[in-house]
Amino acid sequence: MFVQFTTWDIVRNLLEGGKWTLALSLIAFVLGGTAGLLVLFLRMARNRVAQALAKGYIELFQGTPLLMQLFIVFFGLPLAGIDVSPWLAAALGLTLFTSAYLAEIWRGCVESVPRGQWEASASLALGFTQQMRHVILPQALRVAIAPTVGFSVQVVKGTAVTSIIGFTELTKTGSMLANATFQPFLVFGLVAAGYFALCYPLSLYAKSLERKFHVAR
Amino acid sequence: MAYQFDFAPVLAHTDLLLQGAAATLGLTAAGAVLGIALGVLGAICRAWRIQPFSAAFGVYVEAIRNTPFLVQLFFIFFGLPALGVKLSGWEASILAMVINLGAYSTEIIRAGIEATPHGQMEAAASLALNRAQTFVYVVLRPALARVWPALVSQVIIVMLGSAVCSQIAAEELTFAANFIQSRNFRAFETFFLATALYFAMALLVRQLLMRLGQRFIVGRPR
């Protein structure tokens, strides 16, 4: 059976897929940020083993393709008896990926806080968690906002790779539409425009934050 | 019943994995050389505001940096034939990598060029260097030296990103892994080994490029 697709049909379907891209990006960013904070604490901890673990975790995720990470989650978890849908594998894989990158970005921000702040807070008998919570992180946060917003662009773009494990987001919807309509030029052009509409405002916002921070300093 | 890991059926295809890894390295080398060359061109146009190329490169950089590599690849491979441009999986992969890296390296190298101290240009003029000499020895080489680590990181990102080229049937490492797991049904073991290979390649390429940079661009510490 042949169905005729009007341009509006294509756009409507792509918007439907775009919703899932947006949802996945938000989930990965929020959960990845939370997990990233945990990794950051381990990375900055005084315990050598914790440091090494966090460092290895970050290097592993930064040194391997996101597609491989998704494959390992998608094919690995069922071996442990956990049934994974593409949606769950995509969310989990991207969360891990995001957490490693954010932890590394934030580490740089934490290290930009002057050494004296650590010493001063230690001399006030604050423990490691208290130092981080009350002294270091509030100062690191100011530095961290611009690169964190900048990285969110990478998360949105990363969601495209989840189409390969069968998660129906914007790119996968585009592939299916391209096959159904025989108009790949139009469809992938629109898909690219969709990502651009999501990412460009974030890029601009990151740039303006960066400028604001440089002026303030 | 607990799952029994078995790597032997994967190791039986070691030759395919290594061929795939070599193909990935080849793609990366081609993409890196041409992409950085494009980046140098773009950075010159952007830094010196050579119109209309500066504006064109500005649009290009934003368009590429704000869309996923996979979509760029699909657009080139599936979309361009509508304009009469038919490319093989390899050609499309290299083109996409060059275009992608070109955009990022334009921005990276531009930052390096813009950091050239003005006094050095004056010094070059007072030493009677001509425009070409000034450009090569005073602007470009020090600019590349300043941003070399960032460029190397970007090349690694592009190499890891090339895993998605398997989707348009470029027979690189991920394609090889996919082929193997479709034969032996050991998906986890296959992708685990492929991931380990990527990790080793990322370390290796970083070391190699940092050394090459040290030797040919940064030079001996003065």
Automatic annotation (TrEMBL), chain A:
GO molecular function, one term: transmembrane transporter activity
Major place of residence: membrane
ABC transmembrane type-1 domain segment(s): 18-206
Keyword line: Cell membrane, Membrane, Transmembrane, Transmembrane helix, Transport
InterPro entries membership: AA_ABC_transptr_permease_3TM (IPR010065), ArtM/GltK/GlnP/TcyL/YhdX-like (IPR043429), MetI-like (IPR000515), MetI-like_sf (IPR035906)
Protein topology in the membrane: Multi-pass membrane protein
GO BP field: amino acid transport
Family: Belongs to the binding-protein-dependent transport system permease family. HisMQ subfamily.
Entry protein name: Amino acid ABC transporter permease
Organism: Pseudothauera nasutitermitis
Organism phylogeny: Bacteria, Pseudomonadati, Pseudomonadota, Betaproteobacteria, Rhodocyclales
From TrEMBL, chain B:
Transmembrane feature ranges: 20-48, 69-88, 147-170, 190-209
Gene3D superfamilies reported in the protein's UniProt record: MetI-like
Highest taxon listed in the record's lineage: Bacteria
Keyword Glycosyltransferase: no
Signal sequence extent: none
Cellular component aspect of the GO annotation: ATP-binding cassette (ABC) transporter complex
Record InterPro entries: AA_ABC_transptr_permease_3TM, ArtM/GltK/GlnP/TcyL/YhdX-like, MetI-like, MetI-like_sf
Residues in ABC transmembrane type-1 domain copies: 21-210
UniProt-recorded Gene Ontology molecular function terms: transmembrane transporter activity
Keywords annotated in UniProt: Cell membrane, Membrane, Transmembrane, Transmembrane helix, Transport
GO biological process, one term: amino acid transport
Localisation: Cell inner membrane; Cell membrane
Key word Membrane present: yes
Similarity comment: Belongs to the binding-protein-dependent transport system permease family. HisMQ subfamily.
Protein name (database record): Amino acid ABC transporter permease
Species in which this protein is naturally found: Pseudothauera nasutitermitis
